[in-house]
Predict the 3D structure of the following.
Amino acid sequence: MIIIESKRKKPENIRKLYPDAIIADVTSQAADGLVKLSPFYPHGGIPVPFTTGMTATCVEAIWQGLKVFESCDVDVEMLKNDTMKNIKRTVRRFGKPLGHRKGVYGTELLDYITARKLIYIPTYKWMLEHKVADIIDRLREASKTKTIVLLDYNTNQDVDDGSKPLSHAYLIKAYVEGLYPYGSNKETSHHTGMQLELF
């Protein structure tokens, strides 16, 4: 079983809630190989949706690079950012966001939720399948008998809730367990187990 918890919570409090669980930090601050699950991790070679032949360093660079603001269009240079820093493009700097462009050279602007479904989620799935398949396989196997707590700064698990960023930890859970938006299976069982050194 996979559970999502906030990285902002005190580790000891999470341990109290899930004493036998594997605690796995999947943020850009992870101190082990799980950092590769962060949308900020610069794997390189990630296809930019609706843009034939163009790739980017990381999922977040695509998400931020395709944003359009009232004072700034897409940022092609952002697609090359491999530092895991300075990737966010903010309202304070660029003004009101107008949407996400459907491809670097596209004419259509997508609203936030549509962009999440057509750009962010498919891009993150591509990354899971092509860059970290070994980690996903280990997570899937371990989750059959263990409780795994994925730590993320964002814990929103509702794809249609635009008031908060979507948790990429939820997308990991959804992919591993075959849940929406990557499937439709429902969780039917609860597994617990002793700690396991997974990664």
Notes: The first strand starts at residue 2 and ends at 6. Strands lie at 2-6, 22-25, 46-47, 55-56, 67-69, 97-101, 109-110, 148-152.
